[in-house]
Design goal:
Blueprint lengths: L1 H10 L1 H10 L4 H12 L1 H14 L14 H33 L10 H8 L1 H5 L9 H27 L3 H31 L10
Length: about 200
């Protein structure tokens, strides 16, 4: 089921959102069986890329790698930040639905499902960490962010079963919340690094 949704969200997202809506809306189906599994992709690939392959920056031929302990610590923190971020965003969507989804037919909270499946491109783009070239990674990540936003605007009216006009406003509010959360995560990262939990580079 996970792989079916994974392929469908990239090949025919409109039909896939309809399929997701028709399924039982449970925590285990949409969160445990999707987010918690797919969030391992960027975490594992980030660990392998930063410890075994290494990064090159600009025209400098120097290869930068992290120590295994440092990379493992950071990847575990990143993993839990991702799954917590999806959960919090899902709860925000349910809260916002009180305003935008006044005609909700079954009164079923679907924010967690929307947040989980919308985040799929951001999870899968973690594969690029196995090819750690900075400019390539930036381009691919930007494309993944763009497709994530597309999935949000495409899927929200379908999943929430509201008119597209109201869905556009709803999705725009979700994007705003997501940006605020991103700023919060960056600020938290700075604090964590200040406490000494930061990258430690391996000696060449």
């Amino acid at each position: 089921m996970i792989l079916n949704h994974l392929w469908g969200l990239f090949s025919h997202p409109d039909r896939e959102w309809e399929s997701i809506r028709s399924e039982p809306n449970t925590l285990s189906r949409h969160y445990l069986a999707h987010t918690i599994i797919l969030a391992t992709v960027p975490a594992v690939c980030g660990y392998l890329g930063s410890t075994h392959i290494g990064w090159t920056i600009g025209k400098d031929d120097t290869i930068y790698r992290l120590t295994s302990e440092s990379a493992l610590q950071l990847c575990i923190l990143f993993y839990f930040a991702m799954i917590a971020g999806v959960f919090i965003l899902g709860k925000f969507i349910d809260f916002l639905s009180i305003t935008y989804q006044s005609e909700q037919d079954d009164h079923t909270p679907r924010g967690l499902a929307l947040a989980s499946y919308t985040s799929t491109p951001l999870f899968m783009v973690g594969l690029i960490a196995l090819f750690p070239v900075l400019w390539v990674n930036m381009l691919v990540v930007m494309a993944a962010i763009a497709y994530t936003v597309f999935l949000l605007y495409e899927g929200l009216p379908i999943l929430m079963k509201i008119p597209s006009e109201r869905g556009f406003l709803f999705a725009s509010s979700v994007v705003t919340v997501g940006l605020v959360m991103l700023v919060g995560i960056l600020a938290l990262t700075v604090i964590i690094w200040a406490l000494g939990i930061g990258p430690v580079f391996a000696s060449s």
